[in-house]
Please model this.
Amino acid sequence: MPKRYKDITGDGGSNIAAQVSEQHARLRARLAEVRSIVAVVSGKGGVGKSSLTANLAACWALQGRRVGVLDADLNGPTMATMLGVRGRRLVVGAEGVVPPEGALGVRVMSMDLLLPSDDTPLVWEAPTQAESYTWRGAMEANALREFLADTAWGALDVLLLDLPPGTDRLATVASLLPVLSGTIVVTIPSDVAHLVVRKSITIAAQAKAPVLGLIENMAGLFPGPSGAELAREAGIRFLGAVPFDPALAAAADLGKPLVASAPKCEASRALFAIAATVDGALADVSASRPARG
Ligand SMILES: Nc1ncnc2c1ncn2[C@@H]1O[C@H](COP(=O)(O)OP(=O)(O)O)[C@@H](O)[C@H]1O
Ligand SMILES: [Mg+2]
Model:
């Protein structure tokens, strides 16, 4: 059995500090084999972070890259569904928990794989329920650290992190990682989304990782403000626009990313172009960073 978040937060006589530092070391060793780690963020929920994560992962996998996805949305995990591994049993190998391979061989780790496959929600255990609110942040961080440290990702070209909505989540995740190659910010063409996403861009810019750029999702759904304009104002790269396409949602529900099932449609073509632009942005980042030691 993999160790669970409560095993280290709930003590039980074990030496927590030593366990955490041992976990840090393990996490470092694991991630040394991962070339790029990219977080997909947005202050806003429902803008398509997860859908874009699944499709970008599939774009790269179709090109023969080794891709992993960590679903960092512990309370609303969707990656297992979108990449077709929901209900798959986790296998613990000599190296740790083996992430199941979903569509196109993308390796997926998600809280969804640890919970029973009914509608059981994740409940944060705390000494009393009244304390669960304050425990939550710490427990989320612990759970994510465990996911990163205990998952046998193997060698990966890219590990995508699908973050939950909320502007504070990126700092937590970034603090757990030895290196974060960059962040991708997602918005939709609405004033409300732009208001929130602007804040996420500010936070992403303050994180130790570079902002790779902004994606406008659901383009054309309503006549809202331009994502390209938002990127320009914020001084970040505009990665491209993905049109609103019900087929993209349907494909996600079936666990087969649209770029694999309908690679020629407009949304898929946009996604392939965005994946290539992100590649370019990552190459720029690694060229400007000293080699990892
Ligand atoms: N470009 C798009 N066209 C149509 N539906 C989309 C598109 N992008 C996302 N969706 C749908 O919108 C909903 C929210 O997307 P999701 O990826 O779960 O957002 P988030 O992870 O930001 O909360 C899902 O039902 C998804 O299938
Ligand atoms: Mg999501």
Remarks:
- The pocket of magnesium ion (ligand 2) is lined by residues 49-50, 73, 78, 162 (CB under 6 Å).
